[in-house]
Every structure is written in C-alpha cells, then in structure tokens.
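Methods, example record. To illustrate the input and output format used throughout this study, we show the complete record for WAT1-related protein. The sequence lines were provided to the predictor; the line carrying structure tokens was produced by it.
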Amino acid sequence: MDEPSEKLQNLKSLNSLLLKETKDRQQQVESLVQGKADLEKFDMVKLGMHAKTGGTLVGFPSATLMILYKRIATVRVEMDPAPIVLTLFACLSGNLLTGIMAAILDHKASSWKLSWNITLLAPVYSGVVTLGIVIYVQTVLVRTRGPVFMTAFRPLSTIVAAVL
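The corresponding predicted structure is encoded as:
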C-alpha cells in the first residue's frame, strides 16, 4: 500500500526540483537582461570569446538536460522492483540506436555479412558482458547509494571496458 504513495512522493519531488531549477534560470536571465551582472566585454573578434560563447551554448543546455535526465532516471530506478529489467531495456535501446546508426553510416550489404570469428565474438562479448554488467551495477548503485555515488564512479566503467 505504501508503493503508490512513494511514487506520488517521487513525482512531487521531481516537480519541485523542476520548478526550482526553472526559477533559478529565470532569475539569472532576468539579471542578464537588466544588465545587473558584472560581465566582461563581449568581443567576437577575439578567438577566446568564440570558445567561451561556443562552450556556453553547448554546455548550459547539456548540463540542464543531464540534471533533468539523471533525476528522472533516479526516480525510475527507485520505483522499479527489478533492476535486471532496466538493464535489459537499456541494452536493447542501445542496440536499436546503434543498429540504426550503423545502417545509416554503412549501408553496403557486404559489410553486414556475419561469420563465426573474432569479428562477431568481440562485439557480442563487449555488448553482453561489459555493457550488461556495467548497467546492472550502476542500476543497483543508484538504488542503494543514489545518483551522485554512481556518477562519481562513471570513469571506472571506462577503465573496466578498456581492460576487458
């Protein structure tokens, strides 16, 4: 009986987080529009200004999207009773997207021919063993320790993948 109330509480928490983030961004934009912020002179002739502008245009929306995505993923992981099901869906969606991109980038039929050698074994091993284990462990970590703990060890998955 507690499960529906927990789901409702998680959705309320997500809603309040989104509202707070939106208000914070609104205040920052208002202060910029009113000219109250102490900003450096905007000079697009300088190469450094190009880098700063590009970094801001890419980084700000990316960071905002990741904050929202991680919070939604955390709520989903906490609500789901079986982390292995989440692992299955994450792997399947990754395979689907990779297959679509591979079909777009390499549309020759001869390059899609499968044979029983290392060219088949390596991607299967990498996808099933490495990605499956990493996603499962991350799902369990989010459930037990929270998203910050899992994100802190994200570089570890890169090292494990390189070693395997």
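Annotations derived from this record:
The chain has two domains: 1-79, 81-164.
The chain has a mean pLDDT of 76.
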